[in-house]
């Protein structure tokens, strides 16, 4: 069963579920009342998001975990960037012409977060600008069939599968930019080499990634990866670097074993193995820490299935 960059699988099912720009399934029911300032829930108003963040997340006391490391968080972020990315609103202005970057008005797509007067970090601002994501066609409006407003649904512009799209991109165009097409070796493009002769990610173009670096602090540009969010923080960037190196290492090994394979075959066979490695890490190493043994049983993930399925996959190579 083969998959394209858009996640369209060539199989008998011919189902569009999970492909690029499809609607994610809801985990919980929709809140039909929407968001209304001052609306009370069980007699209380909901506190502003910034207040919740400051009170619950910000802390000066850090307790080391005796079992898990920071890598549990880092793999979670890296994995999330393989599974979902909501498409932002196409405009930063409302229908009334309100600039979401300059106004604190709630006017779609502007959805600003209020800043409390005693905020410890954000000063001299009444709000933090925030833009709603785009809605899938036909949602969030009155249905001509049901004569009621339908729930607003999101658009996922990535595949919903663990397939390494954060490494390889989610479109054919992105994949071509990431690949080393100068050589018939199935490699991903590499940047400069480290002192230990290890490759870094290549430098990105002006519009290829979400680059928010301060040019006054460094003359090194942002780096290119399959996901535009790769430069968000250094831990995430390190993960992208590791998987670039792993792909190229695996492609070299496959070429040594199969010298008759061309670069196209090497690239796609390596990509399948890398995707399987990510699935294996997620289901056998990461999820048990997140869900615990009881949680793994409740969602019906059995070890015999995981190990058996993965070994059968690798036995093909």
UniProtKB/TrEMBL annotation:
Any Pfam family hit: An_peroxidase
Domain of life: Eukaryota
The keyword Oxidoreductase is annotated on this UniProt entry: yes
Record keyword Oxidoreductase present: yes
Keyword vocabulary terms for this entry: Oxidoreductase, Peroxidase
GO biological process, one term: response to oxidative stress
InterPro entries hit by this protein: Haem_peroxidase_animal, Haem_peroxidase_sf, Haem_peroxidase_sf_animal
Molecular function in Gene Ontology: heme binding; peroxidase activity
GO cellular component annotations of the record: extracellular space
The protein, known as: Peroxidasin-like
Species the sequence originates in: Diaphorina citri (Asian citrus psyllid)
